[in-house]
Q: What sequence folds into this?
């Protein structure tokens, strides 16, 4: 992500509002989600890239720092105050330092390394004990934990099990930073950080598209014909869905605010698609039901089917 313009990744302008950014992310997430593109590694990589970009641009503070300092603001240990001091120091002729255009060749100068070291807690400095290296790992979550948030544990070599707090509404590809849980520093220098990349496992019943959740709810023939309330488990607990008489199999119902919480704080929706399930038993036991349906008639049920 550091080499790409995050606004370009989402396809929005730098002046885009938070609502425009959220809307574009939801559109891309629905299109690229691994559940929609099973086995498509390119779509999966793009989905993670889009999610990471949204993770920065949907956070007002992170977006502000990114706009001011560029990719360097996304690095671990970045110190906004020290970076601002460096920018105001000025270069030749008093020109403010531009974080967005400096090259690696400047970083080879000892003096410049010392300055960068002051911004990033000594990572670039040549003098004194070195800060420990950062460590990256993957943490697999189930969908309920990602949606609801909560605590889980991860085993870190040399440290044993460590508790991790997963934020409500966590998304696949999101990265969590655990300060000081990376490799130990030299001669008492601070340890590095642990970066956990979240991988949300597929759920047997629910799937997530952006901040919305989708589920197929089985209903009986009687419930479909007569209507009434049916209950099923959702992220908020047991919920009731009121079916109108004559509900068709495959009909979808929207339950507002029962989806996942987005980065902006708002919750998505839950879409329940009901599927009629025939009673168990041998075909001859169901024949009276078939005859009754035949007498009622349904017309040409495939009249609108086109290719």
A:
């Amino acid at each position: 992500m550091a080499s790409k313009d995050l606004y370009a990744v989402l396809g929005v302008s730098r002046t885009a509002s938070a609502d425009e950014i959220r809307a574009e992310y939801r559109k891309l997430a629905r299109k690229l989600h691994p559940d929609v593109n099973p086995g498509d590694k390119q779509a999966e990589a793009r989905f993670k890239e889009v999610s990471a970009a949204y993770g920065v641009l949907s956070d007002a503070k992170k977006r502000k720092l990114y706009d001011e300092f560029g990719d360097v603001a996304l690095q671990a240990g970045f110190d906004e105050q020290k970076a601002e001091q460096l920018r105001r120091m000025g270069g030749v002729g008093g020109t403010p330092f531009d974080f967005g255009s400096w090259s690696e060749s400047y970083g080879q100068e000892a003096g410049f390394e010392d300055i960068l070291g002051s911004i990033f807690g000594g990572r670039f400095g040549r003098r004194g004990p070195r800060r420990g290296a950062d460590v990256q790992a993957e943490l697999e979550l189930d969908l309920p934990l990602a949606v609801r948030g909560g605590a889980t544990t991860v085993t870190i070599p040399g440290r044993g099990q460590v508790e991790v707090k997963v934020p409500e509404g966590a998304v696949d590809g999101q990265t969590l930073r655990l300060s000081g849980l990376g490799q130990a520093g030299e001669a008492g220098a601070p340890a590095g950080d642990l970066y956990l990349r979240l991988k949300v496992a597929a759920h047997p019943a629910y799937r997530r598209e952006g901040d919305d959740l989708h589920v197929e709810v089985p209903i009986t023939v009687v419930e479909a014909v007569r209507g009434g309330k049916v209950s099923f488990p959702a992220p908020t607990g047991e919920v009731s869905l009121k079916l109108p008489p004559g509900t068709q199999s495959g009909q979808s119902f929207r339950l507002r605010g029962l989806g996942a919480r987005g980065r902006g704080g708002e919750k998505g929706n839950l879409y329940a698609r009901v599927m009629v399930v025939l009673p168990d038993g041998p075909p001859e036991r169901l024949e009276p039901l078939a005859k009754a349906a035949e007498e009622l008639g349904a017309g040409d049920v495939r009249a609108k089917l086109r290719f």
